[in-house]
Design brief:
The chain is 48% helix and 19% strand. By secondary structure, it is of the alpha+beta class. A hairpin with a 2-residue loop joins β2 (16-21) and β3.
Length: 206
Amino acid sequence: MIAYVNGILEYIEEGLCVVDVGGIGMNVYISGSTMDRMPGIGEPVKLYTYTNVKEDAFTLFGFLSRDELALFKMLITVSGIGPKGGLSILSVMTPDDLRFAIMAGDSKSISAAPGIGKKTAERITLELRDKIKVSEDDMLRGSSVVTADDLTGEASSARDEAVAALVALGYNSTDAMKAVRKVLKESEDAASDTEALLKLALKEMF
């Protein structure tokens, strides 16, 4: 439908903005994090949009990056997550944080979003974990979403064991996943050695 709206920011309030596109005011629903990063009134803005069509409504949901839009589309494929739920999650989590939470099975962080219960958050991690893959470089700078895992065999086992060990030590599972991923990017030698991977990841936690 409408891929993006590009115009002048006419009005903004929590959860909604109006963009003047050639003299036509477009209502676009936005997340809290998008609202915080919007330009000032009267300034140019480009929002990548998802069009939600119902019998009695035609609604646009907008994002400042294609990355956020892609994650939003993925979120609303999960049963029980509508557009408002997707916006709620992206209001409290960055795209990178959401990916890490899903990959680490960290439903607790996701359930912190308003209106997202524990069971719904668990469903998100279960249904989307296999769909989300971020390359080692992209895990640190944030970008593409594809459908495979870089690590297999011993490397995958070492990664999972290191993350589990960090969680057992009391670290948040999302932070543990971030630390291990960073080590894997920087040290190929530690890729299949759980003990070495854990030691280096612990240094990242401080």
